[in-house]
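Why do we bother with holo predictions? Because pocket geometry can differ from the apo form. Keep that in mind while you read this record for adenosine-5'-diphosphate.
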Amino acid sequence: MFEGKTILTGVKPTGTPHLGNYLGAIKPAIELGRLTDRHYMFVADYHAINAEKDPAVLRQTLREIACIYLAFGLDPEHSVFYRQSDIAEIPEITTILYAYTPKGFMNKAHAYKAAVDKNRVAQKPDDDGINMGLYTYPTLMAADILAYDTDLVPVGKDQVQHVEIARDIAGAINAHYGREILRLPQAYLRENATVVPGIDGRKMSKSYGNGIPLLEDDAIIKKAIFSIKTDSRPMEEPKNPDSVLVYEIYKSIATPEQTQEMAAGLSAGKLGYGHVKNMLLDAVLAEVREAREKYNYYMAHFAEVEGMLEDGAAKARPVAQATLKRLKDAVFGR
Ligand code: ADP
Ligand code: TRP
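The structure, written out:
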């Protein structure tokens, strides 16, 4: 299904990723990238500046996210791994796309609408704190996608609309000039995408502060796992596994056999909350141990990563240049 397809993954560097980000986005992106020979993976740092203005924070989050992908196995020899802001053609393409982007698309884009809704709840003016970067974000995202002749964009549900906007803009341009100037991309929504609950039972999210950290020391990961909400039922009481939050989190990381073992132990009243938390801790540590060492290495030797990102940009740039040329030739009748 993915062979011969160009797959592009963009990731916004905002905040330190937790286990949910890893299982729901980072791991699947790396795995999917291996299924095609044309995988682009970039850090969307232009997107990040809409919300974050502190250069030290931006530098740190970019470093963290780049090192996390490498630590968990993204192969920069196989995937074109680069930083959005290293490709000057992207904002140029964006400018041309603006001329074909109905303003109504932006009004309806849900990242913008969510910001307006938040203002209304807080009884602030609709536009409060909303900059043009956020408002026009879907057009920049369209340029990210269309620049590389992308076929598939793996995304969570929240991003499907943005990919459809990219497709509509490309379709409008192709229709206007009567030929295929831009490849029409498609969102690839992972079926049964994992949503990992946090330690309080709500969706694990940076904004709720209910995450299980990924790459901290054992003791910190243990502390988070041992704070997962439980009730006062004694071990002997048979429990429906689905009523146990630790089990819900475990399911997203353990093998089917391990999951089955925990379910059986809970149902039979043979596993207490201490046991299941230790099982989860073991599973998390097994998943992250090796990556954590690599991560610490890359963070301490970021010059190497910088080199990889520059090599990636050198591979990405000619493709974006070719797209920009096709666009300019068509638009200006050159
Ligand atoms: P957060 O809610 O922690 O701020 P983001 O909205 O930045 O996370 O999401 C980054 C990526 O991680 C997205 O692809 C999103 O689908 C995925 N993701 C976020 N939280 C979870 C979760 N609890 N379970 C699975 N995937 C998640
Ligand atoms: N908007 C995406 C997010 O918030 C990040 C992103 C930017 C992206 N450009 C992209 C994702 C292009 C896929 C393709 O997560």
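The mean pLDDT is 95.
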